[in-house]
Specification:
The complex is a heterodimer of chains A (about 240) and B (about 220). By secondary structure, chain A is of the alpha+beta class. Chain A is built from five helices and eight strands; from the N terminus they run H-H-E-E-E-E-E-E-H-E-E-H-H. Chain A has one domain. The model of chain A has no long low-confidence stretch (mean pLDDT about 85). In chain B, helix 7 packs antiparallel against helix 8. The chains are: A alpha+beta (about 240), B mainly alpha (about 220).
């Protein structure tokens, strides 16, 4: 039987050594991890803007950086749709309502897509993603969810292609041209229903996640209402 | 001690064969079900578990005579948890896509009964070199089963076989489009957890039949 002093001392030393190893590891890889995270966000913006990865030339971090800087224009707007200064990588749309990031896909000098960040509560977690609209600011070009803590196989399916592909071509504005977002229905969309153009198939077993997605897409798009209306009228930035 | 005398061989081969942690002891089932959707995930997970098992066994075995008995579980847990965290951090830095796919299951290696079990049952009672072999053996035993399970799940569930590379995985084989056109369909059930249970059950049955072990009723 060891004495209490010995036991305490032993635990202290082991903890100190393990702690040192852990922090040493973290310090050494932190920059790489940050870089990966940023590249991953950009990758998802590109995917929402309908860029596809070439299987023969996979998206490395550097390639993503290159495509992004050549084709995408990133800036912030305020609630009235005016361009403002910001450090776009640090903007948290959940906390900061005054700086709204916008990513424009520019092809031959013209806007061919507008990607906007969306985020909100699912069932367990905040889901982060990007929704991209065509220049008519009505039709969905693509959508991507890149960070969430939903149940794998149920709510976690939001990040899967079978779910996100259904958003393509759907309309976010109603007949009065008001922004209403996209509704994730329970079960399958009935194509004969007149509102089916605003609806996508739900995920079975993840009704709450789907409801959350419908709510935050509509809410977040409404923040951009002024900006989107400007783009729609002028056709430019 | 000669490294590959018959005793060392037995330490390595037993957990792969007659004393396999998954199919005979039925430990580590949670992660075996979770990371066997694709072969590349199973391979990386196996490597992570082999690394953690071998190094935790060696470290604990080296300090086994100094660990106060009263706090040995805490010490084992902190050593294992630290090693797992290191693996997790490295994956996030060097294999980002893979770490996203494995998500929480890398962290959950900490609670994998195999790791704690080997530390308590073997590493604290044997020298570092034997403990190392035991860790490798048990890791290989775990890896072998989950790679077999993932092979069948991916092949029949998703119609592909994916090997790990730096990015999103290298597709070694996929069922040709013409098969799908001719009416072939993937078995969706295999992608879900019940499919994993079924395949794992079949593997356990097969291996026990092979060894000839019968459980007492």
């Amino acid at each position: 039987m060891h004495s209490n002093t010995y036991t305490l001392g032993f635990v202290f030393i082991v903890t100190a050594i393990l702690g040192t190893i852990l922090s040493f590891t973290k310090i050494n890889v932190r920059d790489l991890q940050d870089y990966n995270l940023k590249a991953d966000v950009k990758k998802n913006i590109l995917r929402s803007l309908d860029y596809e990865e070439d299987p023969n030339n996979p998206w490395t971090n550097d390639l993503v950086e290159k495509i992004f800087s050549q084709n995408v224009q990133a800036f912030c707007v305020d609630k009235d749709g005016n361009k403002i200064d910001c450090v776009i990588e640090d903007v948290d749309i959940e906390k900061n309502q005054s700086q709204l990031p916008v990513y424009l896909k520019i092809v031959d000098g013209d806007i061919s897509g507008i990607a906007l960040p969306v985020a909100g509560k699912g069932l367990w977690s905040t889901i982060y993603g990007y929704i991209a609209l065509k220049p008519d600011t009505d039709t969905v070009l693509g959508i991507q969810f890149y960070k969430h803590g939903e149940t794998p196989g149920l709510g976690g399916e939001v990040e899967k292609g079978w779910f996100t592909n259904n958003f393509k071509g759907k309309k976010i504005r109603d007949i009065q041209k008001e922004i209403i977002g996209i509704e994730v229905v329970k079960g399958k969309v009935n194509p004969e229903n007149s509102s089916s153009i605003h609806q996508v198939d739900g995920i079975s077993g993840a009704t709450v996640t789907g409801r959350g997605v419908s709510v935050f897409i509509a809410e977040d798009l409404k923040r951009y209402e002024e900006y989107l209306n400007k783009v729609k009228v002028s056709g430019t930035i | 001690m000669e490294l590959f005398n018959s005793e060392s061989k037995k330490i390595i081969s037993d957990p792969i064969n007659v004393n396999n942690p998954i199919s005979l002891q039925v430990l580590g089932i949670c992660s075996a079900l979770a990371v066997t959707i694709r072969v590349d995930q199973a391979i990386i997970m196996s490597l992570a578990v082999i690394f953690v098992l071998a190094s935790s066994n060696v470290i604990l075995s080296m300090i086994r005579n100094f660990i106060p008995n009263r706090v040995r579980i805490v010490i084992m847990l902190s050593v294992i948890a630290s090693l797992v965290s290191v693996v997790d951090q490295l994956l996030q830095a060097y294999m980002y896509d893979m770490s996203k796919q494995l998500s929480v299951f890398v962290g959950l290696i900490i609670t994998n009964c195999i790791v704690m079990g080997r530390a308590e049952a073997f590493a604290l009672k044997h020298g570092p070199s034997k403990a190392f072999l035991d860790g490798i053996g048990n890791g290989l035993g775990y890896g072998m089963i989950i790679i077999i399970v993932s092979f069948f799940r991916e092949l029949f569930g998703s119609g592909t076989i994916t090997l790990p590379d730096g990015g999103a995985g290298y597709v070694l084989f996929s069922i040709p489009e013409s098969w799908y056109a001719a009416g072939y369909e993937n078995i969706g059930l295999l992608v879900l957890s019940p499919g994993a249970f079924i395949i794992l059950g079949l593997v356990i049955w097969f291996q026990r039949e092979l060894i000839g072990i019968e459980e007492e009723a």
